[in-house]
Amino acid sequence: LVLLSFGSVFFGLFQIKHFEKVLFSLEQCDISMGILASQYILLLWMIILCNNPFDLNKFGMKKGRTVVERIIATTLPFLYSSSEKFQRVAALLLSLVATREDACREHLKKLVDRCVSTIEMCGDKWSGDNKLVGSLCLLASILKKGKREDLSVIARSVSKIMHHFSDLGNTDFTVKKFAVKVAQRLGMVFLKPKIAKWRYDRGNRCLDFMNACSNKRQESIFLESEDFSDEVYEVPHGELEAVLDTILRALRDRYTDIRWTGAKGVGRIVSRLRKSHANDVLSNIFKFNFDSLAGNAAWHGGCLAVAELARRGFLPLEKLPDVLGIVKNALVFEEPQGHHALGANVRDAACFICWSLARAFRPLDLKIYIEQIASSLVCAALFDREINVRRAASAAFQEHVGRQGGFPNGVDVLTNIDYFAVGQRSKAYLEISCRIAKYPLYTQAIIEHLTFHKITHWDEEIRILAAEALHRLCASNPSFVSTHIVKNLMPLISNDSLIIQQGGIVALASVLSGLKECKCILGKDIYETAAKIPNLIYPICEKRVRSLGSRLMRRAMNVFIKLLSSVIPRELVVIDDWLRCLELNFCDEHEDIRKGACQAGSAFFKVCTDNSSANLLMLRIRQVYLPQITVTNVESTREGIAALLSVLPNQILLLTTQFCPLAVEIIRTLIIIVNQRSSLDVTWAYGRRSCVEAITHIVESVGFELLGNPSEVLDCLVNSLNDYSMDKRGDVGRVLREEAMKALAVVLPMMQKYSVDHDRISEAICKIIQQSTEKIDATRECAALVMKKLLQSSLRDIKEEQILKETYVDGNSVVEWRLPSCFQRLALLLKTNCYRYHALRGFVISAGGLTESTVRGASDALLSVIFDIRHSQQDIEIFLQCFASIFINNAGVVRVIQPLLHTLEQILSAQLLECYEADPDLSPSLQTIVDHIAVEALGKGGIQKVRSCIAVSCHFLHFNSASLLWRKSALLVVRTLKSRYPTLRRYAAEQLYECLVSECDISDEAEKDKREKLLKLLSETKWQICDDQYFVEVSNLVSDMLSIAAT
Predict the structure, then answer these.
(1) What's the CATH fold of domain 1-191?
(2) CATH superfamily of 252-423
(3) Which residues touch 51 (CB under 8 Å, ≥6 apart)?
(4) Over the stretch 1013-1036, which tens digit does the pLDDT of each residue have?
(5) pLDDT of residue 745
């Protein structure tokens, strides 16, 4: 017989003839030697074989034991092993064997009694006790596999151990889960397997209407045979009470799986109870799980239990009002825990209840609750913080629309809040909510939900989103918002909780702004109260910057001033109070607060254009802001004040001071800050960036007419492109270079009508081109886009404009300037006369850098250009002149010299200077390069730079040995042999040895002997020892052998 199981795919491996072989193999396993995977497979195999229909008692006995006894004896050691996997499969095998008709009478009670006695003897109730866990697992499997009439015999003995688990808090997860499983299955044994007649019978629950009639008929036949009408039969109330107590306690356990197990147990047991008893169970759940002091675990377990009862049809119709009240609270449930809150699982379970109600009850029974359910689910689908809860609410809403049919605007709303639409939180808050609010049923519910639940939410992002959503929703029902919502927001401003206070301020500002857009008139007292808020909040904002309350209030004031500057009547605004809050925010150390202050300041300064306010602001700028930005010792303060100056309106900038317009005084102060650097602010690249940004905004706003000569602005921007400041964050100067390039894209076209030195403009373009070929991806992209903008602007007289357009503009394909492949296109710049030097300098920094992909892309592009001209001494000399100029202009600058040496090494390794190998002295540039290499080897920069100098010099030793260049290079290498650093001595010796070995054979015997002695000397000298005088002698000896003068 081949068993019809999943094992049949093994081509008959589960035939009954294998029974004895598998059992014998199991008996041979020695569990004391460890547990193997093969033993696990044998147990699984045995489970499948034990499903055969033959009487096991008819199998032959072996050593006086039946087959069942052998299986039990062999499997018990695995049941008590330390492996959870083996415990489960052993329990499954034992329960399968013990509950067979041919074995249950003799072995079932023995196994159960063994488990009961083992559990009673266990002192601790923890999963570390393998015998306890194994016994519980076996009991749970037996109670699941056995027949009720067989299990009734052992039920009371099993119930005796339930008092050991009366307090689930004293056990761990594994023991709890098995205990709850045993309890619920034991309860099913005590109760008859019949469905209670009081069950809510909706009829066909399947949407497959084609088979509706047949399904209905089958269900009716089933119910007729199983229904009972409160018949009296013996129920062990004491044991059943203990079972229910365990299960109900499990609903409040801290582990989710335990609560799930308890909820399913409640559903199964209540399905067999009388209605009065079922009401008692439900009342207990309502009382203890949904208490105001109950935690999120109790609420979650209670919701799961109610959902299970509703799904199975055992939720009494008269309990619906209580259930709907619980659902309403559960959909917004949150248990605060410091800076976060628990409750997402409760809200998800509440959606499960709504989903179950849609499937269980008739539309007529839910008709009076439809609006409440619909509005609650829509609010949860739109505004819940967690995506899984929003999607669960959407699914529940969809179930109601499909099965109940009476949801107002159900299909239209469902289209907007489907599974994918609610996936993005900001979209749900700001876009979808406005579309749903067009339907009258949901308008007020949505607005009230945001006001009472989301404005005071613990997550700041939710509070901000809710406030912005209220701003947009004002247009849906402005009268309701103005009469009900505003008065509910006012008390929040003076709340003791800073979280609630921040939400109230932001929401009030958003609502007042939204109502102003709707042209809704409010009372003057509301505006007066709102105008005093900055003065009320300032003491909190003034607290130390790192405090949570200060940050919350500063962000709130940014939104408040931004939205209400143009809403509150000007005569009610106290300029000093509002300006004080803005000044704090502008100088905050957090970038997001400073950015928010920029937006708020831009809106606020536009309403300060009357004479008194403008003069007050001008006086404050001259006496406070400009001196403070110059002498501050905090970079964030400089950034903030510069940002404040950048958002000043024209009316303020054009005011005239005693000597010049205010804009000119601001620009000149900022230029001084950018150009002059002290030991304190030398690395403040972000502060200088903000100053350059402010200069650009002011110039773009008022033009150059007031300034007279724009050269000082141009000089400041061009000089900013030389900023390569470094700190612990790396090259922070890049932010200033990028901002300066963006500024040049704005001001260069504006300067054409003024007498500006065109050479200076060309220099600016050259430096931008250099940035476009350097190694930082973001800077390279910024420079390329700036060049494209300049080439497409009205800027005239650009040198070699056509090739620049081919590089940066022409072509239908989009160039990814951040990718190394862009260097192939940028290599066109190396063929220009005007831009070759600056492009080559950028290529050198990229090709000699550390990032492998950038190094490969830049070096391949550079070497391909040099390869094409390698036979032309004239063209090669032009490139060598550029290299020499880079050496001269950047002497001692490790940032440039190190990559330059690496690049030269790559060029020499590729033998691209072969046209000079025979007579290198023909190239003056090569002589200059070698001279500067010798200088750099002696200067500062670390061992790595000296190693690079030696590597390049050794490449020059492959040139003509009679040349002066060869002698200079050899002299540098020989001089390094007596360095005080052992690593440098050894490296120089290795490089010199490799160079000499690779030369062609020498025909002169005397010279050949000398060369062999030199190689032997280099290889046998112990370069790591500490003897300076010895290495001086060795160096002199090597120089004599090479016929060069030692120094």
Answers:
(1) Leucine-rich Repeat Variant (1.25.10)
(2) Leucine-rich Repeat Variant (1.25.10.10)
(3) 3, 5, 96
(4) 888 988 888 888 888 888 888 888
(5) 94
